Amino acid sequence: MSDVIYISNGRLSFPHITEPQKQVSPETGKERISYNCELILAPNDPGFAQFMVKVSEMAGIKWKEYSQQVLQMVNADRKLRCYGSGNEKINKKTFVPYDGYKDAVYITCGRDTPPQIIQADGKPIDPANTGAYQALTRAMYGGCYVHAAVKPWLQENKFGRGVRCDLVALQFAKDGEAFGEGAIDASPMFGAVAGAPAGFGAPSPAGMSLPPFLMGK
Fold it and tell me: At how many degrees (to 10) do helices 67-75 and 46-63 cross?
């Protein structure tokens, strides 16, 4: 656990937690799934400071006397790192930083299996209980606040060197203003259907049997 960093009250962004994000690797052409998100933090957030100290320590161990040169190279290229200034995250339509990112910092984290989800009582949800697991993850929307456990790691392979981050666990902390438009209620645009009998379109009463064509007959 020494490499795991606890992040308190990070703002959740671009969450792919209930369902994984599917992407095709440009290097291999293979599809890769990822449960991932971004955590938006204040520049002086203690969790972010601890994260950066850990990255520096790991780089010193792995790259030794070349660690500073490697980190300079990584910091110069956003594609090589999982962290950065929120002002880098520019919306290509509006040409301004995405909601919540301006003058902040961020950490991008993910994994190829579902992260551990912690309930409000501090206990982890049983991943075998898919209904409860999905109910908790669906409550984690872009703009809410979460506590998170993340684990930075250093990449060094045929694709180059970089700094990446595993998403270990998430816990819903509190509501926040949802990014984007949020859910749209279009019901005021509609009225009753003329001539429709009372109760038409309402759910069937409990216990009423389904017609044969709805029962696969």
Answer: 130
What's the rounded Cα separation, in Å, for the pair 33 and 41? 26
CB 36 within 8 A of CB 108: yes
The tokens describing 76, both together, are 């110069």
**What is the spatial distance between Cα 156 and Cα 74, in angstroms, rounded to a whole number?**
12
CATH 2.40.50.140 for domain 5-174, yes or no, is: yes
Predicted pLDDT at 192? 72
CA-nearest of 164, 167, 146, 147 to 155 is 164
Q: How far is CA 22 from the centre of its chain?
A: 13
Retrieve residue 94's tokens. Answer: 């509006």
Q: pLDDT, tens digit, for every residue of 95-153?
A: 999 999 999 999 999 999 999 999 999 999 988 899 999 999 999 999 999 999 999 99
Q: CB within 8 A of 191, min separation 6: which ones?
A: none
Tell me the residue type at 26.
P
**Whether 169 contacts 124, CB under 8 Å:** yes
Whole-angstrom Cα distance, residue 117 to residue 144? 15
pLDDT < 70 regions, the chain: 1, 27, 181-187, 189, 196-217
User: If you search the block for the tokens 């409550």, which residue do you land on?
Assistant: 139
What are phi and psi for residue 120, nearest 5 degrees?
-60, -25
Give the residue extent of every domain in the chain.
5-174
Residue 205's SS3 state is coil
